[in-house]
Amino acid sequence: MSSPSSAPVAAPAAKICFNTQCKESIADHIAPRRRGWRLRSGEIAELCDRCSMGWIIRDSSVLVLRFGFPKSPFFSFFFCHCRSSFEQGTFCETFHSNDSGWRNCETCGKRVHCGCIASAQSYGFLDAGGIECIPCPRKSLATAPNQISSSLMFMQQHVPERRDSPAKTWRSMANPLSGQWRQASHMWNMTMQSDLQQRLSYEFDRPSSIEKLAHGGRHSIATHEKKFEPERKTNTDLNNISRDKYIHGNAGENDPMSTRKSVSTDPCSTSSIVNFEAKPNSSIKLQQLPVTKENSSILISLSASFPSSNGVKEPMKLSSNQSPSQITTPLSKQFYPQRMNEAELQVQMRNGRTRVDAYPRTQLLPRYWPRITNQELQQISGELYLTVTSPQSSITPLFEKMLSASDAGRIGRLVLPKKCAEAYFPTISQPEGLPLKVQDASGKDWIFQFRFWPNNNSRMYVLEGVTPCIQAMQLQAGDTVTFSRIDPEGKLVMGFRKASSSSNEQDPETHKSSTDISPPPEADQITSLIQKDGSTSKLLQVPSKRKAKALGLKSNCLHIENEEPMELKLTWEEAQMLLCPPPNSSPSIVVIEGLEFEEYEIIFFCSRVEFGADSKHGILKKRKAKAKGENVEVSDGLDTLANLAILGYSENRQSSQPTTRHPRHKPGCTCIVCIQPPSGKGPKHKPHCTCNVCLTVKRRFRTLELRREKRQSEKESEMPGKQQSPILPPEVLPQPGSMDAASTGPSDEVATQKVDKLIADTVVDEASEHRTTSASPHKTPQIDLNIQPEREEEPLVQPQAVSLVPY
DNA sequence: GGCATGCATGGAT
DNA sequence: CATCCATGCATGC
């Protein structure tokens, strides 16, 4: 049943989801936007929302979205659909076992089904020809881990192996696209930016640690790690294989999601599983992948700030938006602590290699894993990130330490964990060490003497002169200081967490009753809703450790701690697909700068950290009014999020500086849309700037304004009795002529705030809507992806530009 | 005597 | 059992 013919023929008239496991009727107005792969007949498979989302997210991953999780309805939406489409993907087992397309693994000889999309994740192509099933590359990787994708993913396998934390499991989803999904699978290579990330770094760095991580010896993988002998990493053949796979987007075969549960020896089994573990408040990042030329598309990087549980806005970390190969994520930084220069890093990133082969093998004890909360990160970033640091900066939590009595005492010596010091602080060879400048959250610089003294053939690292800082922070024994690094400056930032509140901040739910499954008022709302519809039982669950334990959650799903900033990487097309136009809208073709855009009218909101966030209420409300048939309306939350995500795109890596940059703008564009943050700060184009982009923006704005007015007038004339329900209050809606490229005056700011508010209101409810409308687990369709569409045929990659009307 | 510094010790991991 | 590290303590100013 692996042939497309076995799938129901797309019946546009009936508008039934092409996915045989779904067969959900497709609303007419949605159908045109929910296209899947090209069928042999030349038609395009039409999918329902869920399936199509599952489909599109498997496209090559370039777009980077970061958002708080799970507060981001976008994320919720995203995963709901992912899950709905794929999480139960046992496609091969279910559908394809008897079909053709089987090949033998070149390594083990095992039969591997290569004929279906879903199975594409189960094998990899070898450079020398042939294929190799997942477990085989993994074995290779075990001995040749110095390759970023493999190493990362390999490490990910072990993250949940720790017994002191519940595993976050993630059921890998089936692969709709052979090559594409392999890349897309990278998209799901999540790391916890702070905690997990930290651990990934160290756990991988230190082979011996993995034994600990693989505590319990649940899997034989632990034995593999014992083979992490340095000399074996020189196995260039293996490395090359791994790297090539990675570079060619095939690293998905190495996906630990698959290997971890390698007990499933059937390479076709797509129910591969990966267990993730996320510490509270750690951030999750979907790992950047190198992209091949053909699938390299616009890189969008955006991280959003969402209100933390305590209502404090979390920092928005806008990461770089350069070419994919240039991206140095905090994760990569984490993997490459301070001892690698950017050039090295970039080279290695480009080469798909990590620094682990050059980095001293160290391991942090769990108690030093950074558990910096978003609030703390905000605390740091709030003062530093957007002001002191460069736009492309990112904050990487390094480690933390609970102050001992002596640390907090008047002696002024803060004993540093040896491995932390060696990993993240400058290398010092003399006991005298060197002065180390550390900024606190308020931006104040402190200069400590970073030094050591010999101790039992070892070293004991201390920071001297910390007393003033400790006192300034009013810290005492039991409090925790956190060290983070702002990259790429490498600036050290010191935060703190008071003992009295640290636990709550770290994991607000750990103090809840283990039987308390009621979600926290904010962060877990998505979770709870998803749980209601059953989704979390498979993919999206955001339990606390304790809760997870209490609930006996051991499902093969992704458990992600809430509130964790997350970074997704999507292709531009994926982003576009996420931009759902108003149901009744029809696109208009607009040519801008020589490019044709299929334009849906969506009010674009410019928002940065406030994106989707209501710091006060935490949970955002959706605006209730939605004008029926209103073409010109605020995009719904997802659209807005996507828009904002898109706008986060920046070739200039102005990642930390939120701007209203429009994706259509070219690299280096300095028009107001690109450079003007919502705050109004920064360079401005002159009111009468005649640069191409400004003119374009103005032109587009005028066009849309006129169109909007026209529609409104038409609507009013058609529905005189019906109350006009503009999505935006009039004062928020852009006024004709107000879209002056340089109009960033107070009125604009007011409008911006209102718009942001509306966005915020929109976003959360949108998530709720998607949650509530998400299929129940029983209704969750599996998508029959027994087709291997060629990418060039894929209709989804057709640019479907969405007009983003700057406010 | 008070304080800073550097080393040693021993419990914890 | 080795290592880490919190802290005690000796020494010098």
UniProtKB/TrEMBL annotation:
Name under which the protein is recorded: TF-B3 domain-containing protein
Primary location class: nucleus
GO biological process, one term: regulation of DNA-templated transcription
UniProt entry tagged with the keyword Oxidoreductase: no
Compositional bias (Polar residues): 256-267, 318-329, 773-785
Domain of life, source organism: Eukaryota
PANTHER family for the chain: B3 DOMAIN-CONTAINING PROTEIN OS07G0563300, B3 DOMAIN-CONTAINING TRANSCRIPTION FACTOR VAL3
Record-level GO cellular component terms: nucleus
Biased composition (Basic and acidic residues): 708-719
CDD domains xref list: B3_DNA
Region: Disordered, residue numbers: 245-267, 310-329, 496-522, 708-751, 763-807
GO molecular function ontology, one term from the record: zinc ion binding
Domain TF-B3 positions: 399-500
Protein location: Nucleus
InterPro entries: B3_DNA-bd, DNA-bd_pseudobarrel_sf, Zfn_VAL1-3_N
Pfam families linked: B3, zf_VAL1_N
Coiled coil regions in record: none
Originating organism: Zingiber officinale (Ginger)
Keywords assigned by UniProt, alphabetized: DNA-binding, Metal-binding, Nucleus, Transcription, Transcription regulation, Zinc, Zinc-finger
